[in-house]
Amino acid sequence: MKELIYLLTFVILSSFVFAASADIGIESFIVNPTNPRIGELITVNYVIANSGPDTVRVSFGNEISTPRGGTGGSGCCVLINPGQRIPRSFNFIPSVAGLHGFRVFSYPTDGALDPFYFNNTASINITVSGSGTSSPSFMKIAIVQNIDKSPTESTDWLFLIYIIVALVMLYLIYNNFDSIKQNKHKRRR
Structural domains in the chain? Predict the structure, then answer.
C-alpha cells in the first residue's frame, strides 16, 4: 500500500512539473455606444492575449447583469499561442433602463498554470437610458496591458522546486521498495 501511495504522489507531482505555463488575460475591452438607449444594439469587443511561454487552450465568456437579472455566454477551448491575441465580441439589446454590468473572462482549460490570474477578467457598468440619443463614439473601458500589469520575473524557481520534490519522491520510493518487499514476504510466512 505504501508503494502505491508513493507512486501516486510521484505521478501527481510530475504532472505539475510538466504542466504548461500561461499568462492569459483580457487585453482590451471596448463598449459601443457609450450611453445606449433601450432597444439599441450594444456591441462589446474584447481581446484575449497569451503573454505566457506556452500554447494553451482557453475558455472564455461574458456575463451581463441588468436591473431584471443576469445572462451570460461562454466559449470553450480556443488554442492560443504565446504572444497571440484573439478578438472576441458579443451584442446585447437592453430592454430596460438602468445600470447594466458587463464582465468578460478567460482562463486556461488544459491544466496550464496561470499565476497571473488577476488579469483574466475585466468588467464595467454602464447606464442605459429610456430615451435620448446615444454617443456615436467608442468608449474604451478597463484597458489592461498584460506586459505592463503582469510580473515579468521568471517562474523557473517553481519548476526547480517541483524537480526537487520529484527527486525526493523517487529516492523514497527506491529506498522503500526493499523494505516493502521484505514486509510482504514476512506476512506470507
Answer: 2-16+156-188 (no CATH), 22-149 (2.60.40.10)
